[in-house]
């Protein structure tokens, strides 16, 4: 397989969605616990990145594998799905998917032996979501819960695991500390879940034709467009709450400046929902939000 095809198959461009929560979780640990385990953190970064790519690959080949073979879906099979467009064999797709996931799993299990069992349970949840998101008899991505699981798993779990790996030897997980991490990660959770929501909004007609009953199928596009817009507001409110709770540096509030470009991009998306033209706006919003969050949180640590 050519490198270009491989990178397209694993959707390398979407890796930013897991890298930024990783950075944010690490900064959170430094601010609240004043320490970082760089070696373990580097291994987690590699493991989570490999698993992210494996999940994307699994999504692509599962979509191709389970799409109905009829005239209505011929365009999807031959011109849209990366497996069909590049004529990737199912054997190749599975080898790449399970190869990436396998290496990630080995690294993760080694980290468990060094940091403790909480990482095992976090990891098992993440791996289960990663597979069943597109695999199994009823994939999560074809259900009304795709947005929740994508945002919660990438926006919160990666953030939380990064915190745990850096602090496993100085603190224990409690309901209070978990809630504080959840609030601090809220901005990333909503921004990332909106990527999935924007994708489903753009693909609504295609999803219905393929038998996918996403939340758009049940609530309709007008309602979910409002949810899309207000999700960003909810994320910013989480940021303010986290600063008020004292778990984020006050300078993190400068992230609110990102609301200006996010508002502009959101207005454009609300006016037109076309996969090849405006879906990218949701990705841009998530990148702007999480990157500015990381920058201003980092400045808060320095000050």
TrEMBL record:
<dbReference type="InterPro" id="IPR000537">
    <property type="entry name" value="UbiA_prenyltransferase"/>
</dbReference>
<dbReference type="InterPro" id="IPR026046">
    <property type="entry name" value="UBIAD1"/>
</dbReference>
<keyword id="KW-0812">Transmembrane</keyword>
<feature type="transmembrane region" description="Helical">
    <location>
        <begin position="12"/>
        <end position="31"/>
    </location>
</feature>
<comment type="pathway">
    <text>Quinol/quinone metabolism; menaquinone biosynthesis.</text>
</comment>
<feature type="transmembrane region" description="Helical">
    <location>
        <begin position="119"/>
        <end position="136"/>
    </location>
</feature>
<keyword id="KW-1133">Transmembrane helix</keyword>
<keyword id="KW-0808">Transferase</keyword>
<feature type="transmembrane region" description="Helical">
    <location>
        <begin position="96"/>
        <end position="113"/>
    </location>
</feature>
<feature type="transmembrane region" description="Helical">
    <location>
        <begin position="282"/>
        <end position="302"/>
    </location>
</feature>
<feature type="transmembrane region" description="Helical">
    <location>
        <begin position="148"/>
        <end position="167"/>
    </location>
</feature>
<feature type="transmembrane region" description="Helical">
    <location>
        <begin position="37"/>
        <end position="55"/>
    </location>
</feature>
<dbReference type="GO" id="GO:0046428">
    <property type="term" value="F:1,4-dihydroxy-2-naphthoate polyprenyltransferase activity"/>
</dbReference>
<dbReference type="InterPro" id="IPR044878">
    <property type="entry name" value="UbiA_sf"/>
</dbReference>
<dbReference type="Pfam" id="PF01040">
    <property type="entry name" value="UbiA"/>
</dbReference>
<keyword id="KW-0472">Membrane</keyword>
<feature type="transmembrane region" description="Helical">
    <location>
        <begin position="223"/>
        <end position="245"/>
    </location>
</feature>
<keyword id="KW-0474">Menaquinone biosynthesis</keyword>
<protein>
    <submittedName>
        <fullName>1,4-dihydroxy-2-naphthoate polyprenyltransferase</fullName>
        <ecNumber>2.5.1.74</ecNumber>
    </submittedName>
</protein>
<feature type="transmembrane region" description="Helical">
    <location>
        <begin position="179"/>
        <end position="202"/>
    </location>
</feature>
């Amino acid at each position: 397989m050519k490198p270009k095809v491989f990178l397209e198959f694993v959707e390398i461009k979407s890796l930013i969605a897991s890298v930024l929560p990783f950075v944010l979780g690490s900064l959170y640990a430094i601010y609240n616990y004043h320490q970082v385990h760089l070696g373990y953190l580097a291994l987690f970064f590699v493991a989570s990145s490999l698993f992210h790519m494996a999940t994307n690959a699994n999504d692509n080949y599962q979509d191709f594998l389970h799409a109905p073979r009829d005239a209505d879906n011929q365009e999807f099979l031959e011109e849209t799905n990366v497996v069909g467009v590049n004529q990737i064999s199912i054997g190749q797709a599975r080898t790449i998917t399970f190869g990436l996931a396998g290496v990630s799993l080995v690294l993760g299990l080694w980290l468990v032996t060094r940091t403790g069992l909480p990482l095992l349970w976090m990891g098992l949840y993440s791996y289960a979501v990663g597979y069943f998101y597109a695999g199994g008899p009823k994939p999560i991505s074809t259900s009304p819960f795709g947005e929740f699981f994508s945002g919660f798993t990438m926006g919160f779990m990666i953030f939380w695991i990064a915190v745990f790996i850096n602090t496993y030897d100085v603190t224990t997980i409690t309901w209070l500390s978990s809630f504080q991490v959840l609030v601090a990660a809220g901005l990333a959770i909503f921004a990332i879940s909106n990527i999935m929501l924007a994708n489903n909004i753009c693909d609504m007609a295609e999803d219905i034709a393929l038998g996918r009953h996403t939340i758009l199928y049940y609530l309709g596009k007008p309602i979910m467009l409002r949810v899309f817009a207000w999700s960003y507001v909810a994320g910013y409110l989480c940021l303010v709450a986290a600063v008020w709770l004292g778990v984020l540096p006050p300078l993190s509030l400068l992230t609110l400046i990102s609301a200006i470009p996010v508002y502009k991009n959101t207005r454009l998306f609300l006016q037109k929902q076309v996969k090849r033209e405006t879906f990218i706006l949701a990705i841009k919003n998530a990148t702007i939000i999480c990157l500015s969050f990381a920058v201003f949180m980092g400045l808060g640590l320095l000050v």
